[in-house]
Design brief:
Blueprint (H helix, E strand, L loop, with lengths): L7 H14 L14 H13 L4 H21 L7 H13 L1 H9 L4 H13 L4 H14 L8 H5 L5 H18 L7 H9 L6 H9 L3 E2 L4 H23 L8 H18 L12 H9 L4 H25 L5 E2 L8 H6 L1
Antiparallel strand pairs: 1-2
Length: about 325
């Protein structure tokens, strides 16, 4: 905690699990921005070992399980030694993973694990869809970003619908036990951050834009760009079912998640580790892998640094503008 300042683990995961163990109900007796399943898992572990380190172990275990599933699914052991070193070395030295996974133990690892399970079970359509559906039930709203990759596949569309529907039915069942999973989503929808496209544009062109005004335009921009991308893929492939393999599914998750994190009015650097392992695997299979890995590291550095500098410089609701051209050390460092 001293190193990180106020990590989510000590500010949210731990006290919410303790509240649950004390007899509280999520979003009834205490406010939570996570799906109920996540709070119950952390509470169960704390009931066994009453120390925050058990939650750190949980996040690291989820990360390792997800990585092993992805690396075995994409058979990196069959690649040449240079490519394997590039994949594993880029992950190990990736600043976002070093900080938010290795040091801070953020929940992104838990989301990534469910996505990895969904990709690993790609040939078992129903089980794959259930894994993607349970990701939402057991983590947080961001897990829903993988659902297009589960639904837009050439085979087993109805099985995917049934699999995700099964998870949705479980969520509806939670209402019978007074477990509210809607409130966390509404809370997330009302939050803002300064790690998004609007902040960058406002820093360049404006002095009084407010991130809170970005909700409508950001949603429209996300949907328009996503629609253009999907329509382009559909035209090239001659079908609306653009996911024909595990590789396509991974690429679709990266597309939707990456686009969302750029355009959303709440976008934090801690979210990126959800897709970093998939981005590395895609970069390794790109036509120009060296360029792809270079862009990946550039994205990592800017994603890690810029939001933290902005957060230190500005208050919420974020008034943006003039930061790039200010004489402050933070402004210079950002440039």
């Amino acid at each position: 905690p001293r190193l990180i300042g106020t990590p989510d683990l000590t500010v949210y995961y731990l006290p919410q699990a303790q509240d649950l163990l004390a007899g509280g109900i999520p979003n009834v007796d205490f406010v939570s921005s996570y799906s109920p399943g996540f709070t119950y898992i952390t509470a169960a572990l704390l009931a066994i070992i009453d120390h925050p380190v058990i939650l750190v172990i949980l996040m690291l275990a989820a990360e390792l399980i997800g990585l092993q599933l992805l690396w075995s699914t994409f058979h990196i052991d069959r690649l040449d030694e240079e490519t394997r070193i590039r994949i594993q070395g880029t992950y190990a030295l990736h600043p976002l993973c070093l900080w938010y996974v290795g040091v801070a133990a953020y929940q992104a690892s838990f989301v990534m694990m469910f996505w990895a399970i969904g990709i690993a079970t790609y040939r078992r359509v129903g089980w794959s869809a259930i894994a993607f559906g349970l990701g939402l039930l057991m983590t947080k709203l961001l897990a829903i970003l993988a659902w297009p990759a589960a639904l837009l596949r050439r085979d087993g569309f109805w099985k995917s619908i049934l699999g995700i529907g099964f998870a949705a039915a479980l969520m509806l069942l939670l209402f019978r036990f007074e477990l509210d999973f809607i409130s966390p989503w509404l809370k997330e929808g009302s939050d803002t951050s300064n790690g998004n496209l609007l902040f960058l544009l406002g820093s360049l062109f404006s002095t009084s834009m407010n991130v809170g005004d970005w909700k409508g335009p950001s949603t429209i921009l996300f949907l328009v760009i996503l629609a253009i991308g999907l329509i382009t893929m559909m035209i090239r492939r001659g079908t609306i079912w653009v996911v024909a393999s595990r590789f396509d599914q991974a690429a679709m998750i990266v597309l939707v998640t990456g686009l969302f994190l750029i355009t959303a009015k709440k976008s934090l650097a801690m979210y990126y580790p959800m897709v970093v392992p998939l981005m590395i695997l895609l970069a390794a299979h790109a036509r120009r892998p060296r360029l792809s890995f270079g862009l990946l590291i550039l994205q990592a550095a800017t994603s890690l640094t810029a939001p933290q500098i902005w957060s230190q410089q500005l208050d919420r609701p974020t008034q943006i503008g003039g930061l790039l051209f200010s004489p402050s050390p933070n402004g210079v460092a950002w440039i």
